[in-house]
């Protein structure tokens, strides 16, 4: 049976609570919301950009009308709740709507504090709280006259900057000696005042308002010293107080705010409160991060998790005024037990101050260059002992351990639990993990899945750097790189859509994905063909006309149009009869060059295309099959002689290499795949620069991957150590299948690994036995259709047309 | 100009869709291409860039991409498409009831 959940208030906190609740307990509640404001849930933090004109209202809507409809939520817009009847369990709005509830959530937010001076209710006096206030300010700003903002805190300065941007002549009156004194020390407050004044905003500190003067309409503000500052608009931004009136009237315990326990429960067990109206642990909150934490806890309780508890944490303060960068966090008051490190760069307008106690960061003020805020926050949170890096600490993360690094390195070096998005409490690991896990490629996707940078947006740059870091060069902040000019879709989009839409032929794909050309091009067709071969091994008929010539005729084209042929020599092992057969073929077809390859094979070069089937026929009689030296697929498994012969060998590396090769030959991969197995760490098979390598040790088999020794040179990453050959094979096969399913066509395994992250690959292949098994089984299934020797097929007559001319003409005339 | 001497080279069914076959002549190979729309074209099988066999390339639209260095040629005009400059000789070809003919006199005059 669905329970009735009624929510009073429709701000960001209850909005977030509903998102959590709908996820955790969909369908459990019939939800009704009463919103005193006549609109949907919007991002209140972004009112300042709306005021300054940098954003429009539509851009800051969090839940549009459609969202409420989709979730079957009844939203009463412009209904203020005037009474809660706890006995009857109903609420009643000022329009006379009475609604019963099983659970009630009070989220009435806060009311702006209005200073108790004469004239404070005059026309032209506004507060700065909601969209109505912003609209009223925008109307007043059309006069381009004088405005006064009372309050030099976060909100006041944002209001002042917004009004100034709208063309008003603005003066800020602040009662304290420096601006934002609760978040900034005097030095930073001074720099801030300079910056604000440089924008043309006048600042008066120690300005104590005595009265607001005017005849029916505001004409100015009179200060305690007797000065009258003229203005036609006065905005009061001196603070907020929790809006607890309705709860107080209903007999619920209140103090400064509505008193709730760590689970957001009020003194009435059926009623919860959250947001700015709630008081938890004796504190009320105004910044979004703790409010979202309350939302998470409240949702958990409504979903039945009684254990969820609100925990206090410091929240950094950031000013959302374009061009002014400041960041403050924690405790930065002076004290005998504290030390500080200060950096000033007057020319660059930079001020940084770290407050330390017992070699640990307890407070941070950054002005002008706030890039290291997250790092300092992380040091503070983890209580890291900074004595080792004390000399260079203030210069920031990039200066630790050597020369300055690029900005990406700083982000790369952040720990996984470092907080990136302060508003939503999202840490780095959550962002990178979600990007990898869900295959996210755009900023919007990341915002949708993680909420990172979805509120105030000040961490957008960091999130984008994380995307670049996780996705590699393939992440283009502007847009996804299209596969080719035939489409706007990137490789990942295409791969996802093949599965999502169940697309099983190239023409079907081109139709459904709105290809811009009739039949693709030489770039996209081989990629599409590979994706279909990989995703539907049993159903898709390989389109040979979409394969590059080498894969179409199973030999390597050379610069003169002849071909080279490499028979498979399992693990690089051969014998006299095989060598004799090769020698005979070389003689018979007058093959001009025989060469030993880097992958321990014998290559015969300069064979005419017409001769290929006959060459293969002779090789086949000696037991040879195709060596796939031409394939975007498994090429060679190189081995050393291992424990059978070598006095240092620890395992049968030759045997394992042959076993792997026999198991995996014939499989297509995004790009060529070369492997090696070395019998000991001396590594004679050079396994540590291969796509996949094995180093045998006494205790087992070290699995390596993602090496490169071509255009790029790169040592392998160690995936992990396994005990026996069976396990080694299973891990290698699963790894290959993961790469087959996720790699972009022509993307070597090391590039894929860089994009996806070694840790994620290790998690799926080594740590998650279920995933590993599933990858393994999908590979095995696909091999049923792939392990057909293409050479013997062609010897038997397949694709005859490929190997002989259609006609010979003109020769008779020429001969005569 | 003498009337063209049409020489039979086979049928359209001999060529795979979006594929090509070769015809040997004393002057070298000719590539005969069949597009997805069943148009048939004949061009010299020799890329002006580094001599790659165009008949071995991937056929897309009425164009082919050379297998050696990815130059793209229009099968209709023989001209290189995109940023590259160059062209290959086109050979007159006609289709009658699915049977293919190329014009020999051009070949003969060259052969002489």
From TrEMBL, chain A:
Gene Ontology process terms (BP): nitrate assimilation
Nitrite/sulphite reductase 4Fe-4S domain location: 631-771
Binding positions ([4Fe-4S] cluster): 640, 646, 680, 684
Domain FAD/NAD(P)-binding, residue spans: 4-289
Pathway entry: Nitrogen metabolism; nitrate reduction (assimilation)
Free-text cofactor note: Binds 1 siroheme per subunit. Binds 1 [4Fe-4S] cluster per subunit.
Positions of siroheme binding: 684
Span of domain BFD-like [2Fe-2S]-binding: 420-467, 483-532
Domain of life, source organism: Bacteria
Record-linked InterPro entries: BFD-like_2Fe2S-bd_dom, BFD-like_2Fe2S-bd_dom_sf, FAD/NAD-bd_sf, FAD/NAD-binding_dom, FAD/NAD-linked_Rdtase_dimer_sf, NasD-like, NiRdtase/SiRdtase_haem-b_fer, Nit/Sulf_reduc_fer-like_dom_sf
GO molecular function: 2 iron, 2 sulfur cluster binding; 4 iron, 4 sulfur cluster binding; flavin adenine dinucleotide binding; heme binding; metal ion binding; NADP binding; nitrite reductase (NADH) activity
Its EC number(s): 1.7.1.15
Any one Pfam family match given in the protein's UniProt record, by short name: Rubredoxin_C
Keyword Iron in record: yes
Keyword field: 2Fe-2S, 4Fe-4S, FAD, Flavoprotein, Heme, Iron, Iron-sulfur, Metal-binding, Nitrate assimilation, Oxidoreductase
Domain NADH-rubredoxin oxidoreductase C-terminal: 317-382
Domain annotation Nitrite/Sulfite reductase ferredoxin-like: ranges: 558-621
Cofactor entry: siroheme; [2Fe-2S] cluster; FAD; [4Fe-4S] cluster
NCBIfam families assigned: nitri_red_nirB (TIGR02374)
PANTHER family: NITRITE REDUCTASE (NADH) LARGE SUBUNIT
Similarity field: Belongs to the nitrite and sulfite reductase 4Fe-4S domain family.
Protein's name according to its UniProt entry: Nitrite reductase (NADH) large subunit
Lineage: Bacteria, Pseudomonadati, Pseudomonadota, Alphaproteobacteria, Hyphomicrobiales
TrEMBL record, chain B:
Gene3D superfamilies (alphabetical): Rieske [2Fe-2S] iron-sulphur domain (2.102.10.10)
InterPro entries for this protein: Rieske-like_NirD, Rieske_2Fe-2S, Rieske_2Fe-2S_sf
One protein family per Pfam: Rieske_2
Keywords, sorted A to Z: 2Fe-2S, Iron, Iron-sulfur, Metal-binding, Nitrate assimilation, Oxidoreductase
Annotated Rieske domain residues: 7-102
Broad enzyme group: oxidoreductase
Gene Ontology molecular-function annotations: 2 iron, 2 sulfur cluster binding; metal ion binding; nitrite reductase (NADH) activity
Keyword Iron-sulfur annotated: yes
BP term (GO), one: nitrate assimilation
CDD domains with a match to the protein in the record: Rieske_NirD_small_Bacillus
PANTHER family tied to this protein: 3-PHENYLPROPIONATE_CINNAMIC ACID DIOXYGENASE FERREDOXIN SUBUNIT (PTHR21496:SF23), FERREDOXIN-RELATED (PTHR21496)
Stated name of the protein: Nitrite reductase (NADH) small subunit
